Amino acid sequence: MHCPFCRHTDTRVVDSRASEDGSSIRRRRQCPQCHRRFSTVEATSLSVVKRSGVVEPFSREKVVSGVRKACQGRPVGEDSLALLAQRVEESLRASGAAEIDAHDIGLAILGPLRELDEVAYLRFASVYQDFGSLADFEAAIATLRAEGRG
């Protein structure tokens, strides 16, 4: 790490602290040459590989936006959507991969959405899993009912 004041090529870490949500680390550094202190923030990046091959940064807001459409007219609040997006991001980060396929994000959404609202889950799954007939809906509903009894 270069010193932002004198451009010395090496600095010493004085203190490190994790951020509140644990997604980044704040480091207090000191330059051995000019002895000035400064802070840096280190964050891990999570990238999404889309079907077209384009790579873009992961966005919780895009998760919320997609799920919000499935929850339209359902008794699901914005706080619940934000929590769902956080759970999805945490599960993706837990995989340890720096790049995540867009399809895997959809899979990661299905579980928490199902717990949140089964109707919204069916709506999202119908688009995401490309339901083509009523039989697809019936099979998904039968699965929900069977697992609800178990």
From TrEMBL:
Molecular functions per Gene Ontology: ATP binding; DNA binding; zinc ion binding
Record's keyword annotation contains Membrane: no
Cofactor: Zn(2+)
Keyword flag Repressor: yes
Zinc finger (unnamed): 3-34
GO biological process: negative regulation of DNA-templated transcription
Cofactor details (free text): Binds 1 zinc ion.
Keyword tags: ATP-binding, DNA-binding, Metal-binding, Nucleotide-binding, Repressor, Transcription, Transcription regulation, Zinc, Zinc-finger
A Pfam family of this chain: ATP-cone
Location of the ATP-cone domain: 46-136
Family listed: Belongs to the NrdR family.
PANTHER family, A to Z: TRANSCRIPTIONAL REPRESSOR NRDR
Cross-referenced NCBIfam families: transcriptional regulator NrdR (TIGR00244)
Function: Negatively regulates transcription of bacterial ribonucleotide reductase nrd genes and operons by binding to NrdR-boxes.
Protein name: Transcriptional repressor NrdR
Annotated source species: Serinibacter salmoneus
Taxonomy of the source species: Bacteria, Bacillati, Actinomycetota, Actinomycetes, Micrococcales
Gene responsible for this protein: nrdR
